[in-house]
């Protein structure tokens, strides 16, 4: 993997981690005595990323102060004025991310993934796995993104119109993806600006531009979205 740039999505409100996030940003909730963001940044640094950006919104001054003290080399993408969702956050951080491919990593995802192993073919590669989820991405036989399904409501979205989800491979997105900086002009071409979901953008773009899924071998992942996951996260580390 050529890129040394990474973007950590850490601006969310962390509502599922309340009451801990009533007094701090989600990224500063501790696992094994250290904030979530500490573990992610250390993994990125140890993997060779030397240009790392983190977005801030919830308790932004507190979070920015922590980064300035503990990780002064990290770029801060300030979303204090408005929480921009995943896609909008990536676009807002464009000045830090252009100049080649870049990794995007959710702050509340722990995994055993070698971040250097993600192949980039086309506009983006999404790290996915076969696991229970209320929503799945749909991939064809070539692991090219074709749609999305909400397992609870049965809603299906695809740039190809009314597709049959049973004919596609259902895979859960990990919150880790490798993007080409060609994504930025595509945001403009497809009319994305301000606040928007990166999945919404992927589902618009994927019919004309290759977006593929990648299942790492022996992949283990933990979503630290709820209080009960914090203890398991310490064991995971």
Describe this structure in words.
The protein has 237 residues and is of the alpha/beta class. It has one domain (5-236): Alpha-Beta Complex (Spore Coat Polysaccharide Biosynthesis Protein SpsA, Chain A), CATH 3.90.550. The chain is built from 7 helices and 14 strands. Strands 1, 4, 5, 6, 8, 9, 10, 11, 12 and 13 form a 10-stranded mixed β-sheet that branches. The chain has a two-stranded antiparallel sheet with strand order 2-3. A hairpin with a 5-residue loop joins strand 10 and strand 11 (156-157). It is globular and about 50 Å long. The model has no long low-confidence stretch (mean pLDDT 92).
What is the gist of this entry?
With 237 residues, the protein is of the alpha/beta class. It has one domain: Spore Coat Polysaccharide Biosynthesis Protein SpsA, Chain A (Alpha-Beta Complex).
The CATH architecture name reads: Alpha-Beta Complex
- For the record, the count of structural domains works out to 1
Largest sheet: 10 strands, mixed
The name of the CATH topology is Spore Coat Polysaccharide Biosynthesis Protein SpsA, Chain A
Q: Note the beta-strand portion.
A: 25-35%
The top level CATH class name: Alpha Beta
Q: CATH H-level name... which superfamily?
A: Spore Coat Polysaccharide Biosynthesis Protein SpsA, Chain A
β-strand number: 14
Helical segment tally? 7
Radius of gyration: 17 Å
Secondary-structure class: alpha/beta
List the helices and strands in order: EEEHEHEHHEEEEEEEHHEEH
Task: Outline the low-pLDDT stretches.
Answer: none
């Amino acid at each position: 993997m050529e890129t040394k740039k990474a973007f950590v999505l850490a601006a969310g409100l962390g509502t599922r981690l309340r009451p801990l996030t009533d007094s701090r940003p989600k990224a500063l909730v501790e696992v094994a005595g250290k904030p979530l963001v500490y573990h992610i940044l250390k993994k990125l640094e140890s993997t060779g990323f030397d240009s790392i950006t983190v977005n801030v919104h919830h308790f932004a001054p507190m979070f920015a102060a922590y980064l300035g003290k503990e990780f002064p080399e990290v770029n801060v993408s300030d979303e204090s004025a408005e929480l921009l969702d995943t896609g909008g956050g990536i676009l807002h951080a464009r000045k830090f991310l252009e100049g080649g491919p870049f990794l995007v990593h959710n702050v509340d995802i722990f995994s055993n993934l070698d971040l250097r192993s993600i192949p980039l073919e086309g506009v983006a590669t999404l790290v996915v796995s076969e696991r229970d989820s209320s929503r799945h991405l749909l991939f064809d036989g070539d692991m090219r993104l074709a749609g999305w399904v909400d397992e609870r409501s049965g809603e299906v979205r695809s740039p190809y119109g009314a597709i049959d989800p049973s004919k596609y491979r259902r895979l859960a997105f990990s919150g880790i993806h490798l993007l080409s900086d060609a994504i930025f002009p595509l945001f403009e071409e497809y009319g994305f600006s301000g606040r928007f979901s990166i999945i919404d953008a992927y589902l618009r773009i994927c019919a004309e531009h290759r977006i593929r899924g990648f299942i790492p071998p022996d992949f283990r992942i933990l979503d630290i979205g709820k209080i009960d996951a914090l203890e398991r996260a310490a064991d995971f580390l």
